[in-house]
Specification:
Helix 1 runs parallel beside helix 3, helix 2 packs across helix 3 and helix 2 crosses helix 11. By secondary structure, the protein is α/β, with parallel strands linked by helices. It is globular, with a radius of gyration of 19 Å. It contains eleven helices and 16 strands.
Length: 333
């Protein structure tokens, strides 16, 4: 008899995918990708006629191991930045898992919750691999969903001594500082400019919907680590060319960065860097193929785009936990 389809709501995803466990799942998935145990094609994007939103199709495959079968999967995600004004998430959709031996559908998960958690978890993993051991002064540029989960991820991998947040809407920054400061038990200072937020910071996360740079290279302190997350199309960026040029640059997937990362591609077009500026992928660091930070004064940069293999790694973890704990809804197809 076919295995019933597992369905997890957003709340169930959040409960079964805590940040610390998700960071380890991301390490497993990206290590598998580096070893050739995963398939990761470029995503396909369909824009709406008015260019106000898009539908992304992100397929992938994770090979099986001794304790688990292989997985085929796809994330179907819509991105509508205007949703913020309506009080709704900009990212919505589904992650669907299939058995790679039979093709049978196994599970359907809320993609917004997975995206929020796993994106920050990958930044947490990059920070663990690239930031200075004593890095503790965090600047967050942006105050939305990813700001919340990135604060959780940074707290999971470094002991924070100071947190500052900036947003283009000062009231959003103040609300974020008050709400997340109380929820996560940390003092957060809302500041009036991005430059003020990053002054002296050794951890910087850019999680905005900006189309033009909000972080300038001249502002970044020696020894800082930057997670650039918000821009994911060739024509948008959060970092100026100087910020990219000053840093040792690592990505989640080189092919994706060469096709999709506006922060990198626009700096390339402006002549500030060449393609060799991408030193490697996180998987190269996880499998000890290369070193990350070379010195205390170096600036390191992780350019995040988000990969289907990350969604599959999160989905595999969710499927294991939900099955073991008898969580979720089972539906006989």
């Amino acid at each position: 008899m076919p295995t019933p389809l597992l369905i997890l709501s957003r709340r169930e995803v959040e409960e079964l995918l805590p940040m610390g466990e998700c960071i380890e799942a991301m390490a497993e998935g990206l290590s598998a990708l580096a070893r050739g145990e995963a398939l990761q094609p470029l995503r396909s994007v369909l824009w709406t006629p008015d260019r106000n939103g898009l539908l992304g199709v992100m397929p992938g495959h994770l090979s099986g191991a001794a304790e688990t079968a292989g997985l085929l999967g796809v994330k179907l995600v819509t991105v509508f930045p205007g949703n913020h004004a309506r009080g709704e998430d900009s990212h919505q959709g589904l992650v669907v898992l299939f058995d790679d031996a039979t093709g049978a559908p196994l599970a359907v998960f809320d993609a917004a919750a997975i995206t929020a958690i796993r994106t920050a978890a990958v930044s947490g993993l990059a920070t663990r691999l690239l930031a200075r051991e004593g890095a503790s002064d965090l600047a967050i540029l942006g105050s939305g969903v990813q700001a919340t989960t990135h604060l959780e991820a940074m707290r999971a991998v470094r002991r924070l001594s100071r947190v500052r947040v900036w947003s283009r809407d000062p009231e959003h920054a103040r609300r974020f500082a008050a709400a997340e400061g109380e929820r996560q038990g940390v003092d957060i200072e809302a500041v009036s400019s991005a430059r003020e937020a990053v002054h002296g910071a050794d951890l910087i996360c850019t999680v905005t919907a900006a189309r033009e740079p909000v972080l300038e290279g001249a502002w970044i302190s020696p020894g800082a680590h930057v997670n650039a997350v918000g821009a994911s199309t060739p024509a948008t960026r959060e970092l100026d060319a100087a910020a990219v040029a000053r840093a040792r640059l690592f990505v989640d997937r080189r092919e994706s960065a060469l096709n999709e990362a506006g922060d990198f591609l626009l700096a390339l077009q402006e002549g500030a860097i060449d393609e060799r500026h991408i030193l490697g992928e996180l998987g190269d660091l996880l499998t000890d193929r290369m070193a990350g930070r070379g010195g205390e004064e170096e600036i390191t940069l992780f350019k995040s785009l988000g990969l289907a293999v990350e969604d599959l790694a999160a989905g595999r973890h969710l499927y294991r936990r939900a099955t073991a704990e008898k969580r979720g809804t089972r539906f006989a197809m």
